Amino acid sequence: MAAKKRFILIGSIVCLVLFVIISSLVLNNGFVVLFDHTVNQMTSSAQTPLGTSIMVLVSFFASTIFVGLFSAALLTYFYSKKQKPEICSYLKTVFLGVIIGFVIKNIVQRARPENFLETDYSFPSLHATASILLYGWLSFHFWKQGRRRKAVALLCVPLLIGFSRLYLGVHWFSDVLGGLLLGGGWLLGIQYWNKCNVMKSPATVKVSK
How many whole angstroms separate alpha carbon 5 and alpha carbon 110? Predict the structure, then answer.
């Protein structure tokens, strides 16, 4: 258990440090900006009407509407089952994580690539942040239940959503990478916090004695 907690903590720290580095490069127009433009040109040239329709659908699964409705349904289910720890964990992970991403987005105020779909600020990608928070949390939840295949499969969803944002040309590459790192760092940090609280709970102490 201790080794697993340490691994999660290190993962959280690494993700957040990398996010800070990328944020600094974005704010100071570092080399990552040139790479962003190169990726944007490549994805724009590869767009097709069918591909765009598919990627809009993929992107929807991390939209504000979907995350809001899905969260409401999931929290209602947990409430009906009296699973208060799951409710608290989900709220701390997904809702607080998205709020942090939104605040950072409005502090950085980076312009998006020219597109006809979205015009608000770009860094970090909230779709990428929300997707790793939501599907990453579900992955941890299924992993604890022993449903390992579902847990691993869910980790592919944020990557697909991140790619969809690049394909649609609504984000720079560093926006998506930054969103995944921010969400991943927060997700792992909350998981570490939860495990520490479980270890300190009276029930755990009683069992260990």
Answer: 35
Structure-token match 């991140």, residue found: 162
Give phi and psi for 44, each to the nearest 5.
Answer: -65, -40
- Contact call for residues 194 and 89 (beta carbons, < 8 A): yes
pLDDT tens readout for residues 60-91: 999 999 999 999 999 999 999 899 989 999 99
Q: Is the pTM of this model over 0.85?
A: yes
Residue whose entry in the numeric block shows the structure tokens 């599907």: 135
Report, in angstroms and rounded to the nearest whole number, the Rg of the chain calculated over CA atoms. Answer: 18
Cα 10 to Cα 41, 44, 47, 209, distances in angstroms: 35, 36, 38, 29
Give tens-digit pLDDT for 118-177: 778 999 999 999 999 999 999 999 998 889 999 999 999 999 999 999 999 999 999 999
**Which residue in 81, 56, 180 sits closest to 123, CA to CA?**
180
Give the Cα separation of 88 and 174 in Å (integer): 31
Amino acid identity at 82: K
Half-sphere exposure of 158 (CA within 13 A, CB side): 29
Altogether, the residues listed in the chain come to a count of: 209
